[in-house]
Amino acid sequence: MKGITLYINEDEMSATLTLVTQTNCDTPNIEEVINYIRGQGVVFGLSRKRIFNILQQSEVAETGTEFCVTVAKGLPPRNGKDSCIKPLLRNVFERYLMSHDKHSNSDNWHSLAAINGVNPNYTVAKRIPPTAGRLGKTITGKTIASIPGKLMDINLGINTKISATDKNIIVASISGIAKFENGVMSIEEAYIVTGVNVRTGNIKFEGAVIVNGDVTENMQIIAKGDVVINGYVESAYIHSQGDIIITEGATGKMHDEDCQLIANGNIFVQHAQGLDITAGKDVNIAIQLAYSRVKTLGNVTIGSRNNPMGNLFACTIHCSKTVQAGSIGAISGSELLMDFSEGYESICTRLDSIIDLHKLLTTTNAKHENKLTELHDYQLPECFKNKFLALNNELEAERLLLLWLKDMQTELQESKQEYENNVQVFANKELFPGVSVKLNKNVWRSEREYQQCKLRLNSGNWQNISLV
Asked: What is the DSSP secondary structure assignment for residue 139, as one 8-state letter?
């Protein structure tokens, strides 16, 4: 067709139409162009709208004007998904967070916050079969095969087994509490007690501990599983290799380290004051956190997850991610420090070590390469050939190590950037004087009151941004 050419990409997944306006020549209508394109073998993914638009533009353009547009696109194949394990019960920590989320769709608070107690042979998870994926299609009508997902083996957690009637169903082998983590469902044996006090004594248990009552002063709970306390904790020591959930409140003597909560996982407390908190994951306080010391590798949230409006003041927080609350600090100007340095320093130290090692090995490797090149120029006796081969192997090992160090350097630089992006403080209601935020030597201190704001790093410096 005069003034019109069609280019079909080699993979036949797209076609580009080029139109050059002609002198004293009528613009072809859309049906003529479509027939021309189909005559070139394009039978799928044709866009009438794009063709119409290019024809409209060409009618008012000057002679010799060139238009170029993709008028047909193929459908790429979508590979199937591998099989995966779907838990049929939520973890205790997740259920308590949902129960305190004002925007949750739950109809029954008590039902949502209930503990996932199960009996033997209770179905706790199932394997979702792999999917076949979606076939693709070229613009010329050829079918493109997709790669189906794989049927992955089921990794059984402790105290679980495959159902006798269905190889895709995971059931409990004992009575206990369901816990799903890293794609594996486990059942933690549970020790249930109505309270922990001088009468019951301290508790040390290999599974989960459920306390349907209070934990009194100077008592201890040490558990390998989750610790759930449906009551108050006063000046006690709680240590869990899983999560800690305290449904009411926990208090200590403000400046003494007499109420400690230590968890490898998450920590949830309704109301917290005078605590020493150490968490491997997230810390969530439903109402207020005051006069406490917190150290966590995750986020600190005061209030519900969707709209954190709790109070945070007079604390020292060492955090690796985001801090969110409604009110941060107090009208009195009491000191509140949020320090994000520890995790950042760890990444920077590792990155510096990798960079130094890479530089040193690069210099050494260059010397070895030169020496080996020199040896290539000599006629070596037969008896030296094995040693020469060994040198070549050693040099190849050096090259591989250099590549690994370069990959590690890139990975750590990305981790450093991700850390800086994650470090944020959200005051969803107000931020008072006396609040300090720190990352290494970069320190920001509030000298006045701010309404609804967030603090984040921008080019290495703290920036206060209004949320209003």
From this structure: T
CA dihedral 149, 125, 106, 209 (to 10 degrees): -140
Give me the pLDDT at residue 452, please. Answer: 93
Quote the CA–CA distance of 394 and 400 in Å, as a whole number. Answer: 10
Mean per-residue pLDDT for 238-247?
94
Q: Tell me: pLDDT of 114 over 60.
A: no
* 23 inside domain: yes
Is residue 250 within 8 Å of residue 233, measured between CB atoms? yes
Q: Residue 59: give the domain boundaries.
A: 4-73
Beta bridge partners of 263: 240, 279
> What per-residue confidence (pLDDT) applies to 216?
94
For 378, residues 6+ apart whose C-beta sits below 8 A from its C-beta are none
**Predicted confidence (pLDDT) per residue in 28-43, tens digit:** 888 989 999 999 999 9
Same domain, 376 and 354: yes
What is the per-residue pLDDT across 123-139, written as a single tens digit (0 to 9) for each? 999 999 999 999 999 99
Of 67, 69, 61, the closest CA to residue 25 belongs to 61
- Lowest-pLDDT range of 103-107, 158-162, 209-213, 454-458: 103-107
Q: Are residues 400 and 366 in the same domain?
A: yes
In 88-161, which residue ranges form alpha helices assigned H by DSSP?
A: 92-99, 109-113
Pairing type for strands 244-251 and 227-229 reads: parallel
For residue 444, count CB atoms less than 10 angstroms from its CB and return exposed for 0-12, middle for 13-18, buried for 19 or more: middle
Residues 181, 282 within the same domain: no
**Predicted pLDDT of residue 319:** 93
Whether residue 79 lies inside any domain: the answer is no
Structural domains counted in the chain? 4
Amino acid identity at 365: N
Residue 78 lies in a domain: no
